[in-house]
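Re: iron/sulfur cluster structure - here you go.
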Amino acid sequence: MHQFRFECQPGCTACCETEGEVRLTSEDIRRASAFLGIPSEVFVSTYTTGAGTLSGLRCPFLGPNGCAIHPAKPTQCRLYPFWPEIVETRQAWHRTVRTCPGIGKGPLIQIADAVAIAAGMKEAFPDSYVQEPAPSPSRKRRMRNPASF
Ligand code: SF4
Ligand code: SF4
């Protein structure tokens, strides 16, 4: 499989409801603060842990009508499900298919394009995507070629 369909589904907030961190780049903070009309320092003290993630187990911007900062949502939210740990790993991709109803709907997307989009996560969070050493034969079962999804 070299391509798949994806279109984020109106009204869906499944990925926002998943327990986990929402990491923020300095640009994410700048854009969200500007969108809310508050200084970045206020945004950081009000909505973040102070360590580069939104505070709370539940995202503080998830409301009954979805994301309250949708036009300025953080990089990791904007790029989901095109994250390296998802598009580069067969098992993770199939797990995500079960939880993201947008996969399988909408326009066709080439796998290579999904990987290119996922590179945005590596640019935003380089510390989280440290280059792995060359794999030993026993580690090659981890799929590195998304074209074989
Ligand atoms: S789970 Fe998928 S369809 Fe739902 S909001 Fe997230 S990306 Fe969109
Ligand atoms: S910031 Fe918005 S898109 Fe991101 S998890 Fe929170 S509600 Fe969802």
